[in-house]
Amino acid sequence: MNNSKNDKLLLLINKVLLSVIVIIVVSPLLYVFLASFLEPNSLLKKGLLLSPSDWTFEGYKRIFSDGTIVRGFINSILYSAGFTIVTVIVCILAGYTLSTEGLVGKKTIMVFFIITMFFNGGLIPTYLVVKDLGMLNTIWAIIIPNAINVWFIILARTYFKSIPKELKEAARIDGASEFQIFLKIVFPLSKPIIFVIALYAFIGQWNAYFDAMIYLEDRELYPLQLVLRSILIQNEVQPGMIGDQLARAELQRISEMIKYSSIVIASLPLIIMYPFFQKYFEKGVMVGSLK
């Protein structure tokens, strides 16, 4: 198909705009990645000059010399994977149920769900509920409280409505139960929305640290984000705490290296995972938006 002059101009403008956006997004990531391998003093004076004499792995060595980093990494994987599995199961089942025709009180249930998107019980009541359920200082305090996400349910319901109802009607005529219809017909067609919800849930839990800070007391259970937060706070220079200027400068140098290295470590799993989810992510979001 031959494009007109206006189409070619529009495509050129789109390419330029997308290139600018990519540069804006990639530049900070590239800067942080390269800065994690450079001496902070050289970085401050020379900028990102990739001179071999300025390269260093000291930031990574200092982080991994503490066993809490590896333990926190493993904990984050367990929390994120468990949270993702529970969230996907709950939200997919709820979304499918709310997408079925003839469900009594469907609108009332949706109104009830939507209200919870704007109002919640607050931090102290939630903490008391978690405590009364005996989930404090356990993995369940991280996974259960936020597993039900109304936005994911709405997204799943919208996707299930896009599946032709004739498929389900044909299965019912053949004697299939509602569970068999979901398991053998709807579920295989739902990979895009499942991967979208899984990606959102995993990223959200991987980057979270506040719930762990509130509900976990045992440092052995700390996720990676909370461990890195503790490391950064411990290595942060506070004015007046250290009288020797040389000692303060050295501590500041170490702190800068740890900051950049910790950002790379925390971001690496998400960067590796996203390309495998990309095709499902794009399809799932587009189906929901078109509906």
TrEMBL record:
PROSITE patterns xrefs: ABC_TM1
Family matches, as InterPro entries: MetI-like, MetI-like_sf
Stored SUPFAM superfamilies: MetI-like
Protein name, as recorded: Carbohydrate ABC transporter permease
Annotated family: Belongs to the binding-protein-dependent transport system permease family.
Chain ranges of the ABC transmembrane type-1 domain: 73-276
Chief location: membrane
Bilayer-crossing regions: 12-34, 77-96, 108-127, 139-160, 181-203, 257-277
Keywords: Cell membrane, Membrane, Transmembrane, Transmembrane helix, Transport
Bilayer disposition of the protein: Multi-pass membrane protein
The keyword RNA-binding belongs to this UniProt entry's keyword annotation: no
CDD domains per record: TM_PBP2 (cd06261)
Compartment(s): Cell membrane
